[in-house]
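Explain this protein:
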Amino acid sequence: MMNNKYQLPKPIETHFYATNTDDSTSFLSVFTENADVFDAGKVYHGKDAIKEWSDREYFGVRLRLEVINAIHNAKEFVVTAKTDGNYDKTGLPDPLYIDFHFTLDGDKITLLRNVLSSNSRAIPLPETIATFFHAQDVYDDDLLASCFADNAILLDEGQEYYGPENVSGHILEANRNAKVRTEISNCVELSDKTIIVTATISGDFVGSPISLYFNFTINNGKIKTLNIEVADV
């Protein structure tokens, strides 16, 4: 079920191949002794904990993963995969897409974070924009702030926020409080500096779900302005 058009580093390739072939030994071999796995709100530290987790959540339910997209940013590899298996599917999207965020040290995985994908349709996104949405998904304040220029401006619900830390802080606080899930449905590049992403967000807020336009302007690889507004769809 691997998609051969994506050239993945060997440990990441092994992660997916071993999963799909029920090879728990090879699966565990690509993690460092002190690796961490974040999955479903829990942290598993070290190989013993990762083995217990993978025996239950991967091999115990015969998890199958079909890679549909992969990107590499400054901090990590992010692989999106369509999942199937004998796990409890109650309340989950169908089909279910997961983003696997890998941090590597040489030929070993030091960190893996599994989160529901905001880009399940594998829509091509400029690298900065892809990083923005992935940072939102994993609540990575530093990574999200790094997407913005020093003089960045966010316009959201009639309020303005200035600077990378204030912008990222507002976005992640709002997403955490409302348990926001994002599903990207379109991306239009009006120019090399102006990009509009359409996405539906859902969560614990009035009016959920709602379709939004994320209007980005990019300067020197950083987000200069972001205007979030209700989409006219």
Helices lie at 10-20, 24-29, 46-57, 127-137, 141-146, 164-178. The two ends are 35 Å apart (CA to CA). The chain has two domains: 10-116, 127-230.
